[in-house]
Amino acid sequence: MVNKQELKDKVINEVEACKEELVDLCSSLIKIPSENPPGDSTEISRFIESYLKKFDTEVDFYESADKMYNLVSSIGSEEGKHLIYCGHTDVVPAGNLEKWDFDPFSGEVKDGWMLGRGASDMKAGLSGIIFAFTILKRLQIKLPGKLSLTIVPDEETGGDFGVPWLLKNKIIHGDGCLIAEPSSPYNPTVGQKGSYWFELEVFGQPGHGSLSPLAGKNAITDAVVAIREIQKLWDIQITVPDEVKQLIHVSQKYMREVEKDREAFMPVLEHITVNIGTIEGGTKSNVIPENCKVEVDCRLPFGITEKEVTDFLHEKLGELGIDYKIRPFGFRSNANFTDPDDPVCKAIINNISFVTDHEAYGVMQWASSDARHFRDYNIPVLQYGPAFLPTIHGYNERVQVEQIITCAKVYAAAAIDFLYSE
Predict the structure, then answer these.
(1) Cβ(336)–Cβ(164) under 8 Å?
(2) Residue 155 falls in the annotated catalytic set
(3) What's this protein's family per the entry (predicted)?
(4) What is the per-residue pLDDT for 1?
């Protein structure tokens, strides 16, 4: 009879013994620029393929769009349960290099920190799942199920060429999924708010600026009035469904007691957030603008759908007497979650506690990620990965090296628990 505890101890000890290799792997990934846009994942995908093949691991390549490569590699048995490790290779652009205190593509380790663009989101987590995958292979652990490593190119722009493309084409499937996205050290995310990005276009009538407001119809001033109505989405009182009330409760506890700087943001879990992201309109200061476009990012809590939000917008904007159109784009989903008692959640949460000797529990994410796609296909999923959250998508992105190592231990141990469970 297999002793799971002995196997877990074995893989955890191996990660510890080879931790310098893990750190070097993470550093190497950061050194490869994989900014999206433009989204060319060729170099980093080929590097990962070469690394995996050192351990006699077969890798399947799927080019879902020009220079966007998905990698899938599996070990274990076709019998039994199937666990997916998932991560993305793309990172957001580094931006103004003069605002960085170090080279964003240096992959430098300094004072216990891994430095560079993608260190937290999510090359530290990506290196962790790759490394845990190879540890199980090199130790020749005979898994009673299947473990698949799925690496995708197109997460940061909310595109369709990564996880959704693989799921739609039936290339991946499973009984559970771990995404190595950044999280708190002890609090993986088991649910997330919905997302509704839309463009509001307001139409006016041009005329000479010297005759405004008596002549023409100003699209920009009409858009300003429309924005005021859009911002009222925050004020909608939403009833949280009973099945997620406990998850909301523990998530607010987390914001109040763990990430204490987030306490002021607790209301976002139960409200529609509204960000007026861009505005563009007009041609010259002396011409009454006939067109104005506004891009809006709304995040939807449990208890309201995209359709209900759209209906609200049409009702309010229709009362203004303006000429407008709403066009959805980018991230779009309703709020979604995985039961914290699902086996894949328990495997990760229990092993966070086992590895760190610290209480762990799942919480809500107030943004969106690839997790929603897995849930669309009824694959239970959660996110857990190393991160220094304040630096994600910002300048001087970094993550503690020790956290990279801890997460890799959790990944390897959780795979054993999940695949060996009934």
Answers:
(1) no
(2) yes
(3) Belongs to the peptidase M20A family.
(4) 66
